[in-house]
Amino acid sequence: LANRAFHPEDSIIDVSGVKVGGNNLTLIAGPCSVESKEQVIEIARSIKKSGAHMLRGGAYKPRTSPYSFQGMGTQGLDILVAAKEETGLPIVSELMGEKYIDEFNDKVDLVQIGARNMQNFDLLKEVGRRIKKPVLLKRGLSNTYEEWIMSAEYIMANGNPNVILCERGIRTFETYTRNTLDLQAIPVIKRLTHLPIIIDPSHAGGKWWLVDPMAKAAVVAGADGLMIEVHNDPECALCDGPQSLKPEKYDDLIQDIKQIIKITDKT
Ligand code: PEP
Ligand code: MN
What we know:
Number of helices: 9
Strand order of the largest sheet: 3-4-5-6-7-8-9-10
Bound molecules: phosphoenolpyruvate, manganese (II) ion
Domain DAHP synthetase I/KDSA: 17-258
CATH topology: TIM Barrel
Keywords: Transferase
CATH architecture: Alpha-Beta Barrel
CATH superfamily: Aldolase class I
Organism: Faecalitalea cylindroides
Protein name: 3-deoxy-7-phosphoheptulonate synthase
Helix content: 25-40%
GO molecular function, one term: aldehyde-lyase activity
Structural class: alpha/beta
Strand content: 5-15%
CATH class: Alpha Beta
């Protein structure tokens, strides 16, 4: 179903009015985790001013350690909903398990499946059957293109055709960076599938100063969008502070990207 051979045109996915794919460059930004209403509203207002189209924020977090902050749960989603009411930005958040499906159908505009759940096949089947919103499927930490596309097939074959792929860096032998951004994923996915692909340079590099150059490279390579972590106080962030941009830095980046897309086919 994802195969380009049977669907030559690019798919354009409508996320509560925001079109992803085709000639659109979709900008998603926000904190790794929802921490408070003040935090999210402040960040949402500033990214909107910079030109972002959607607000991201984790409410249920897939943390490596069970002793790390696990997210605000329902309360976190309600804060995102409040930020959407305030700014009009559709919201993106990660679905960690089947038991949250009804809540996500009610509150979230774009349902993220995280890297760690990319091959949680029972979850993918339920997402295909029951999630009524578009799905953002992140590439697993060590998964091939074929495995990633097959995970998209699980969702599509079970009834939800609205899948957006997200490359977020893969594990390599290099340990200096958190992961290695696979820019080749952009042309490869476009060749093999008709689905939009967006890039998450924040989780790829794990360092805030890598976000700007990698985001720009992704746009030039033909990405359909960027998902970037932005925090108003990265030093005190409860999750992923070192890779988060301050709102001013995000604004600088987006202004540069608006210049770059004049020489690409994106708008
Ligand atoms: C995230 O987007 O906050 C996240 C946890 O990403 P990933 O699943 O790519 O690690
Ligand atoms: Mn994160």
